[in-house]
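Section handout 9: paired folding examples.
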Amino acid sequence: MIVLSNPMVTRQFDLNSILRDATICISGYFYVVDLGPEVQPRAHHVGKDKRCLCSLGADCPAVSAVAGHLRQGGERTPEPPADYHILAPETCPICGAPAYFEAKLSTRQHGAGWGCSKKGNSHYWQERSRFIAQALAANPWRFPPVVVRDGKQINAWDGILPTDQVLSPGLLRAEIGA
């Protein structure tokens, strides 16, 4: 038995029956678990980190429902980009200290902003700088070549091929020192 409560009512439920009847769908990078009309809140959002957004966190029955869903071959949520935080991390990825959500650093492109309990926002910016450096290293072009390839004009991020008709040779970052 599990006891779930809200400010108005405390009830006991059979956990096996709740998990058996739960429905799971995917919304963005989350599993949305419907535990049925008798459980409040009814909808729970579970992330890949095996935490529910409700106050029970990792102890929420919705986490077990998602685990069962995945064991049975259920659909998985998509992988977020490496530099995207769905939620603020529990621990700082730089030093391991407890981390916290920082709304003013949140963006659509990079997800939830966060701060480090030891170093504040500086570790957030250190991590962002690391991702920017990796992206720059992976892309040598400031402006890619513009070519006609297979009858179509494209930006040749992969460089100029022998069969390409070159419209503009592009500009490498190394050529301008950036």
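Moving on to protein 2 of 2.
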Amino acid sequence: MKPSDGRIWEIDALRGFLILCVILSHSLFYLSNVLGRFALPPVVAFVMQYGGLLFVLLSGLSATLGSRAPRRGLMVLAGGMLLTLGSFAGVLLGWLGEDMIIRFGVLHLLGVAMLLYPLLKKLPNPVLLALGLGVIALGYWLELENVLVSSRFLFPLGLRYPGFSSGDYFPLAPHLGWFSLGIVLGRSLYSEKKTRLPGVNPETPVLRLLCWCGRNSLYIFILHLPLVGLIMMLL
């Protein structure tokens, strides 16, 4: 199955599965704050730890399949800014602590990465692979060494200032590296831009649901945060 817009069903399905897991993990996390701490199921703990990273990889992979990465990047970045404004509003209304303000979350990161894709796609795979691994190593080194700077405007790069906090934080280092590896993965696995699972019927109800969620993951991600938070407040 190769839709005319460059979409491949298993990528949409995987993205849809991840967004549903994110909703579940956020719901259980909020619920643990309401009812008291309890051990999260292993799959939920895994998604909370690595789900964002998988989204970044998939985003890099998906960028190789379409032709509108910059336009999509502007939409995703706008979604990130909407969440930033919403988190600021939550603080002003007394619903959230200041540490929950989303200053540079996963949507900000993905938006910027997609805007940079026209430059990244010009690099051959070996160079892009080396660049990605280098950015990943730099980002984790900055985190492990707890490198802090005086400037209050470099946090999107991974350079935090003392007292910095963000309700969701995906700096360019290391995550632009994972996006770059996703590009290499897309070029390698989907060079022909067609499904790798031709024997699977994507029209089954479960796969259709997952694909729909994957195609609308941006809107689902933006809407689920206030909805889950509101439900937990009511509880």
